[in-house]
Amino acid sequence: MSQKNWPEVEAQLYMKTFRRIPLTITRGEGMRVWDDQGRMYLDFVGGWAVNVLGHCHPVLVEAIERQARTLIHTSNQFYTIPQLELAALLIQHSCLDRVFFCNSGVEAAEGAVKLARRYGKLQRNGAYEIITVGDSFHGRTLAMTAATAQEKYQQLYTPLPPGFVNVEWNRPQAIFDATGSHTCAVMLEPLQGEAGVRIPDPDYLPLVRQWCDRQGILLILDEVQTGIGRTGSLFAYEQAGVEPDILVLAKGLASGVPIGAFLAKERASVFQPGDHGSTFGGNPLACAAALAVVAYIIEHDIPGHVRQVGGRFLERLHGLIHELPVAREARGCGLLVALVLNKDIASDVTLECLHHGLLVNQVRPDTIRFMPPLIATDDDIDEAVTILRTVLASVQRRNT
Ligand SMILES: *Cc1c(COP(=O)(O)O)cnc(C)c1O
Predict the structure, then answer these.
(1) Ligand 1 and 137: CB distance under 6 A
(2) Which among 59, 258, 300, 322 has the fewest CB atoms less than 10 Å away?
(3) Residue 275 contacts by C-beta under 8 Å, 6 or more apart in sequence?
């Protein structure tokens, strides 16, 4: 089997949705993965900000094994203990009061929107409209494509479900102007991952929060990418100095086992029995995995570790910018970091990094994104920067 040409198999069998990188990963451990030829790579993609504890962390593996032997799934007609233990842990460590579990980021974001619409019907005369901002990313269902204010995702699937207005990012006045009697919520990412790690002005979220309070509308924060320690606090909202009414989580929550969640303040938790549901959502296997991950992140102060190594990484990248004009700007928060290049050569750099044993993500034509596991050490950071220096120097030579 290992001799098969997997890219050829994929080309014949799989929907042509993904622009894949020519690498077949067969195994992972900690910060490293191995391909089908036995070559090793340092992983700074982390499954798109998912593998927070790295690959096959013993704590996660043990939790999955134990739960798999005990109870994998029941229906949500019944109480199950991992679901409620995970709920308790998330609520204890966040500003929210109630939770609903589902299976992915998009499902969590869409669930949050349904909750906001329910709130609008009950508390704001049937208000239903959600304001979202430019270059946001909220996932790939039809409704979340309407929420995701990016032309390239929207134009293919029109007509999109109504009830979303997309306004300019990082300009509070744009949200004020778009607010009307139909508005029930504003939905934002505290910092935008998919847009290339864009961080808004420090007063942006506080001003939007104030506005939502004054208007009686809800603030939904989509922390699918920024949550679970990624930015150096358990949730990014802690550093923004605002509390959301609804918080959306997924990616890192179970370090690779599929799970999503949305949490809400009590006053926004307006669902009644039958209003929303899920077959798999909150099942014992996924929740036992998430419970082990979140407990580990909290007990080992992983957010503190992320601040330290993330700071080192950004400092080293700034060093590269001084050395190599091909690198233009480095920005980020914790271990969600981007390097902007002076031309649209991010795909060259990504491939060259791959050949040097480093996995990185091309997030824009001129931008590389790094989302390594949160257990990355100083040595891992230095190794990645050393490879990047070699790669950027050679790309720079080729492009001048
Ligand atoms: C990845 C992501 C999503 C979608 O998550 P899926 O699990 O792919 O559905 C939604 N919002 C944000 C901010 C994301 O980064």
Answers:
(1) yes
(2) 322
(3) 114, 118
135 within ligand 1 shell (Cβ under 6 A): no
Most informative mutation of 142, 145, 224, 257 for ligand 1 (most atoms within 8 A of CB): 224
d(CA 368, CA 379): 20
| Mean pLDDT, range 101-110, rounded to an integer | 98
Strand partners, 261: 101, 249
Domains, the chain, ordered by start = 6-56+301-398 (3.90.1150.10), 71-299 (3.40.640.10)
Confidence of residue 19 (pLDDT cuts 50, 70, 90): very high
Helices (H) and strands (E) in the chain, counts: 14, 15
Rounded to two decimals, what is the model's pTM?
Answer: 0.97
Q: What is the pLDDT of residues 172-182, one digit of tens each?
A: 999 999 999 99
The Cβ-side half-sphere exposure at 334, using a 13 Å CA radius, reads: 28
Element containing residue 292 per DSSP (H, E): helix 284-299
Q: Is the Cβ atom of 104 under 6 angstroms away from ligand 1? A: yes
| Residues forming the active site | 137, 222, 251
Q: How far is the CA of 315 from the centre of ligand 1 (A)?
A: 28
Q: Say if residue 162 is preceded by a cis peptide, omega within 30 of 0.
A: no
Query: Can you spell out the DSSP letters for 97-154?
Result: -EEEEESSHHHHHHHHHHHHHHHHHHHSTT--EEEEEBT----SSHHHHHHSB-HHHH
